[in-house]
Automatic annotation (TrEMBL):
<keyword id="KW-0347">Helicase</keyword>
<keyword id="KW-0413">Isomerase</keyword>
<dbReference type="InterPro" id="IPR052511">
    <property type="entry name" value="ATP-dep_Helicase"/>
</dbReference>
<dbReference type="InterPro" id="IPR014001">
    <property type="entry name" value="Helicase_ATP-bd"/>
</dbReference>
<keyword id="KW-0227">DNA damage</keyword>
<dbReference type="Pfam" id="PF00270">
    <property type="entry name" value="DEAD"/>
</dbReference>
<dbReference type="GO" id="GO:0016874">
    <property type="term" value="F:ligase activity"/>
</dbReference>
<keyword id="KW-0234">DNA repair</keyword>
<dbReference type="InterPro" id="IPR026362">
    <property type="entry name" value="DEXH_lig_assoc"/>
</dbReference>
<keyword id="KW-0547">Nucleotide-binding</keyword>
<dbReference type="InterPro" id="IPR001650">
    <property type="entry name" value="Helicase_C-like"/>
</dbReference>
<feature type="domain" description="Helicase ATP-binding">
    <location>
        <begin position="31"/>
        <end position="201"/>
    </location>
</feature>
<dbReference type="Pfam" id="PF19306">
    <property type="entry name" value="WHD_Lhr"/>
</dbReference>
<feature type="domain" description="Helicase C-terminal">
    <location>
        <begin position="242"/>
        <end position="395"/>
    </location>
</feature>
<keyword id="KW-0238">DNA-binding</keyword>
<dbReference type="Pfam" id="PF00271">
    <property type="entry name" value="Helicase_C"/>
</dbReference>
<keyword id="KW-0378">Hydrolase</keyword>
Length: 806
């Protein structure tokens, strides 16, 4: 009689018993699916043992049928997560006494170990999409992956819908060709569209080949909003006012993680907390720009319980399991219910205990957003997952990687590429154009040998035209295109991390800035290093050009609902309730399906504020377009400011007909002209040119500066715009500019409904609802050191004027 599909081998069973545990149902279901040879998507609450569920079939197979080569590939969106998984996986393997090797391979892995891993891979390899793509660029990838049985994609929601997901999807298609029996597994706690992810995971998008395994429900999270001791602020977005209260929460709990939405804010919050840390509690900071050794040191200190709190960014959003964390604090609004749930899951990483979390709103709109996020979590509502076509720059990079490994046949490669869902609708003509671009750079660039990376033999096989292009690809491949960074070092050579070249260019000898939790003084700046020394002088915060987190559509809808539903207001603090009540008396609170536009005059300027709730990105784009149209109409615009909730434009002439500024044809006329004339398309082209391999960031032994990369791409951009406007990379840049940089989808949705739903209210003075966005105008006029105090004074003056009852 055969054993049931979900029966664990004896060493595993003894290990569970020794811990006083029993395998959970979904863990056994994953084992059963594996034994049937089926791929699977596991959706399970944080703390439900997702990682163990993903690896349980691998451990069972390697115990029952040991193999020497690579058996399972684990792909993580974060280096820190791969390292954390290794630590948590090696422990049970050692305790069971089984001979299974587990190793990581990321950009931080030493080169000698990378070479050894290709020659003698471990049974389980933990990596990232970029490192996997590089592995596939070697000729020995065909032997390394020949016996691969399983690929496990952890935190699949974090990258499946973006460019890194495109790359991983193509990599899985290649692996499936090398190892046809390979199973695909994906894990996530926050998936709103399981069928969408099953299709993404499956070969050829065949959803029926991927089983959906649902985890057991855990204890409901315990989330509260931390309110200030006096009033919810009118302005700001970081919750810095609450530093002393946050420090008190840290003192009250064993271990806390303080999440910030940006690296700059993390540095700022760490300094604020340190000033309030009268008990000298050990606290640390963690973000992606810190040196690897600094991150590892902090991670080890957290794992061993030596830190009471860690200020972090999205570098720790996903999966890292520190069991002693008993409180998570989100500084500023979370921007999405899925992100909030993910971050909350770092607290009490156990299924049967409630996660403890606090949200610190930065202003009154952010209070409404925080309340909306809590309601969404309670209702089990996650942010929507938006799948789209795969990008052409990623495809070009992948095709070059495949050619580096071995020559390929065009028809066979097209079939392989189409088996990846993001590229399933790729046409023959577009595939030809991408190959043509790699072959010679395109019509306008084919006179230059440096762009002739591929050639086609008489037998139709595509191969790399010169060995130098293989080395060039491996040095430059990658999907994340960051601004060029300078190393921050002490005079003795010790590295602290990296700051962007653009920020470094604003510094001079003797200037000070906060980094890695320290106040640093600049001693010297050269092409690659920023030499500093520690100081106690006041300092500024480094700026980073990373993309801003957009407000999710589901939270935006809930905030709109709050404005229109006074029956909900009893749940709000008195000052927030008063803010809405006076807005209702003095102006209008729009229904969810309405676009409120207010106009008023203040200090000789004419203002128009539109409350569209489409997120900062869309509002920035709209502000550029509307002010351009105002100029055309003779309204003499002076500028605009925006936040996630509203757009405020101001000028010298009164706006009497806002509807004319919001007509849908603005996307046909002004939008195209603006994107082409602005830096946006050039910036998008810079990124796709680097990803697509047209411009290299590094040569053997040296790295280009950001200015050199920019000069190269801008020069090529101008040539292509003039002589080859249909170039495949210009098309890719346009796709990026539309979707990612301008959020044109939300913009189009707003403009489509504007004409029919606009409610225009002309007011004698500023309204309560306008205060949080109008305060942003003052920020541009104030020096860094005095900004907070000055903005507070300006906000109070505006609020006094807005809240006065006639």
């Amino acid at each position: 009689m055969t054993a049931p599909d979900n029966q664990v081998p004896a060493p595993l069973a003894r290990w569970f018993e020794g811990r006083g545990w029993k395998p959970r149902r979904h863990q056994l279901d994953m084992l059963a699916e594996a034994r049937r040879g089926r791929s699977a998507l596991l959706v399970a609450t944080t703390g439900a043992g997702k990682t163990l569920a993903g690896f349980l079939p691998t451990l069972a197979e390697l115990i029952e049928h040991p193999v020497d080569g690579l058996h399972t590939l684990y792909v993580s969106p974060l280096k820190a997560l791969a390292v954390d998984i290794q630590r948590n996986l090696v422990t049970p393997i050692d305790e069971m006494g089984v001979d299974i090797r587990v190793e990581t391979r990321t950009g931080d892995t030493p080169s000698d170990r990378k070479a050894r891993q290709r020659a003698r891979p471990p049974q389980i390899l933990l990596t990232t999409p970029e490192s996997l793509s590089l592995l596939l660029s070697y000729p020995d990838s065909f032997t390394m992956f020949a016996q691969l049985r399983t690929i496990v994609v952890d935190e699949v929601h974090a990258f499946a819908t973006g460019k890194r997901g495109d790359l991983l999807s193509l990599c899985m298609a290649r692996l499936q060709r090398i190892a046809p029996a390979m199973r695909r597994v994906a894990l996530s706690a926050t998936v709103a569209d399981p069928d969408g992810y099953r299709a993404w995971l499956a070969p050829d998008g065949d959803i029926d080949t991927v089983s959906l395994v649902q985890g057991e429900g855990g204890a409901d999270p315990n989330i509260a909003i931390l309110l200030p001791e006096d009033r919810v602020p009118w302005a700001g977005h970081s919750g810095r006012y609450a530093a002393a209260q946050v420090m008190a929460e840290i003192a009250h709990h064993r271990t806390s993680i303080i999440f910030c939405n940006t690296r700059a804010l993390a540095e700022l919050i760490f300094q604020d907390l340190w000033k309030s840390n009268t008990d000298q509690l050990p606290i640390g900071i963690h973000h992606g720009s810190l040196e690897k050794e600094a991150r590892r040191k902090v991670e080890a200190a957290m794992a061993s319980g030596r830190l009471r709190a860690l200020v972090a960014t999205s570098s720790l959003d996903l999966g890292v399991d520190w069991g002693d964390v008993d409180c998570v604090i989100q500084m500023g609004a979370p921007k999405g219910s899925s992100r909030l749930l993910q971050r909350i899951g770092r607290s009490n990483h156990r299924l049967d205990e409630s996660s403890q979390a606090l949200v610190v709103p930065g202003n009154r709109f952010e209070y409404l957003e925080a309340r909306a996020a809590l309601d969404a979590v309670e209702a089990g509502e996650l942010d929507p997952d938006i799948f789209r076509m795969g990008t052409l720059d990623v495809l070009a990079q992948h095709l070059m990687a495949c050619a580096c490994a071995a020559p390929f046949d065009q028809a066979a490669m097209l079939g392989e590429v189409r088996s990846a869902l993001p590229y399933s609708a790729l046409t023959d003509e577009l595939f030809d154009r991408v190959l043509g671009f790699i072959r010679d750079g395109g019509y306008s660039l084919r006179a230059y040998d440096r762009f002739k990376r591929l050639s086609q033999d008489a037998d139709g096989q595509w191969r790399v035209s010169h060995p130098r292009f293989v080395a060039q690809h491996r040095l430059n491949a990658g999907i994340i295109v960051e601004a060029t960074m300078l190393k921050v070092r002490f005079g003795n050579g010790r590295a602290l991390g990296k700051v962007e070249e653009g920020f470094a260019s604003t510094l001079s000898h003797g200037d000070t800035f906060f980094f890695a939790g320290l106040s640093l003084e600049v001693e010297k700046i050269d092409t690659e290093d920023l030499i500093v020394r520690a100081t106690s002088r006041p300092a500024r915060i480094p700026t980073y050009g990373g993309s801003r987190m957009p407000l999710s559509t589901s939270l935006a809808d809930r905030v709109r609902g709050f404005l229109a539903s006074s029956s909900e207001w009893h749940r709000f603090p008195p000052d927030v309730r008063e803010w809405l009540e006076i807005q209702d008396r003095r102006s209008v609170l729009p229904r969810p399906d309405q676009l409120l536009v207010e106009t008023f005059v203040r200090e000789g300027r004419h203002y128009m504020v539109a409350y569209s709730f489409e997120g900062w990105n869309a509002h920035q784009s709209l502000g550029m377009l509307v002010t351009k149209r105002m100029e055309t109409m003779g309204l003499k615009p002076l500028g605009f400011v925006a936040n996630d909730y509203a757009l405020a434009c101001f000028g010298l002439e009164k706006i009497t007909d806002p509807a004319a500024l919001f007509s849908a044809d603005i996307l046909e006329d002004e939008f195209v002209d603006w994107v082409e004339r602005s830096h946006l398309l050039k910036r998008a082209f810079r990124e796709v040119a680097v990803i697509g391999g047209l411009v290299e960031r590094q040569h053997p032994g040296k790295r280009k500066t950001g200015k050199q990369v920019t000069f190269s791409t801008d020069l090529i951009y101008d040539v292509l715009r003039q002589y080859e406007p249909s170039h495949v990379l210009l098309q890719a840049a346009w796709d990026d500019a539309r979707a990612r940089m301008t959020d044109v989808g939300r913009l189009a949705s707003l403009l489509e409904r504007a004409a029919d739903t606009m409610v225009h209210v002309d007011l004698p003075r500023v309204s309560p609802l306008a205060v949080p966005v109008l305060v942003l105008i003052g920020r541009e006029r104030i020096s860094t050191n005095s900004a907070d105090d000055a903005l507070l004074i300006e906000a109070e003056a505006l609020a006094h004027e807005a809240m006065a009852i006639d």
